[in-house]
Amino acid sequence: xxxxxxxxxKTIIRKLEEKDLEKSLIWLKDPTINKFLSQNFDNLTEExxxxxxxxxxxxxHDYIFAIDSKQGKFIGNCALHKINWFKRRAEFGIxxxxxxxxxxxxxxxxxxxIIDFAINSLKLRSIFLNVYxxxxxxxxxxxxxxxxxKKILKKDHFYNHRYWDTLIMEYTIKVxxxxxxx
Length: 182
Known about the structure:
The protein is an alpha+beta fold. It contains five helices and eight strands, in the order E-E-H-H-H-E-E-E-H-E-H-E-E.
């Protein structure tokens, strides 16, 4: 983890702490938030959330963060998961759980700061994510942050009595030949 918080224009990215889990669990169970997440967390218990947290903080392949507003209010989470150190890639996830901060640039700011951290501190070369086709707001943000559509998993996700496509998007660092050491 970074030695200090990552400061953006609107956000402060810090290590997720156990005290953050209670609020995170409320967000994960909120149907208006849950529909955008990679899995259904309706039945997630506090103990399961704590077990997940204990596993994540010990993992050398995951970085989990809290997103605070500049005023210090905890508003969401983001993470780099499944880091493959050999291929220098990771899976990205984000949730702005406090809906009062939606559509105000907080997610964009956090994404840009994590991309910067992943590239400059962790030396990753690509970051990928999954997003459902009905999440147009997130797709636009990801595109504005430099993510490109890589693949579409047709009718991969069931929500609200129908099947939806899952888009796989990727942010890739261009590697110059002189940067490759043999």
